[in-house]
Amino acid sequence: MSEASSRGVQTPSLLLLSLCMAAALAGCKTVGGLAGAATGAATSSVSGNPAVGVAVGIAVKAVVDASMNALLKHWNDEEQERIASVAGTLEVGQSADWSVRHVVPYQNRGGRVTVVHAFSTPLATCKEALFRVDDEGASPAQTPWFAVTVCGRSGVWNWATAEPAVERWGALQ
Asked: Please, what sign has the CA dihedral across residues 78, 83, 85, 86?
């Protein structure tokens, strides 16, 4: 292999490594675009065909974006399940802390939940609760509270709404 061709292989590898490191520092929203750009550029330079590079880049971006969305949705479900299970153990007027620690130490959350009302239906026992998600650097007085209804059957408590309906839910949306 000539010196020029070995530099051509190293350059995409270095570019890919640099872009991956930048993506890790930039946050989840940019990972798909950066991964797609890096693989597209690497594929284009190795194959010599820009169309192939563009196609590979678009495909990689789509797969990475879908994977990240699925992971974040799973983490949101874990947070909702944890809030529901803590609220399910409380009586009206009681409060307790809740927390979720993910396998990957990213977006670990915690806060407080207070049960304000309980009622029964023919299908399940339900509780209305207020909860907050503590943010680093914010005092508890500055942290907003959100209302939720949780219902339980046979000791298993679940979030009663399918999806939070408003933008203000942020991480729990």
From this structure: positive
Q: What is the pLDDT of residues 103-125, one digit of tens each?
A: 777 778 888 999 999 999 888 88
Half-sphere exposure (Cβ direction) of 132: Cα atoms closer than 13 Å? 15
| Pair 53, 45: CB distance under 8 Å | yes
Provide the 10 A C-beta neighbour count for residue 16: 17
With tokens 């799973």, the residue in question is: 74
**What does the DSSP assignment read for 17-84?**
HHHHHHHHHH-HHHHHHHHHHHHHHHHHHHHS-HHHHHHHHHHHHHHHHHHHHHHHHHHHHHHHHHHH
**Amino acid type, 24:** A
What are the two backbone dihedrals, phi and then psi, of residue 91, each rounded to the nearest 5 degrees?
-90, 165
Residues 6+ apart with CB under 8 A from 48: none
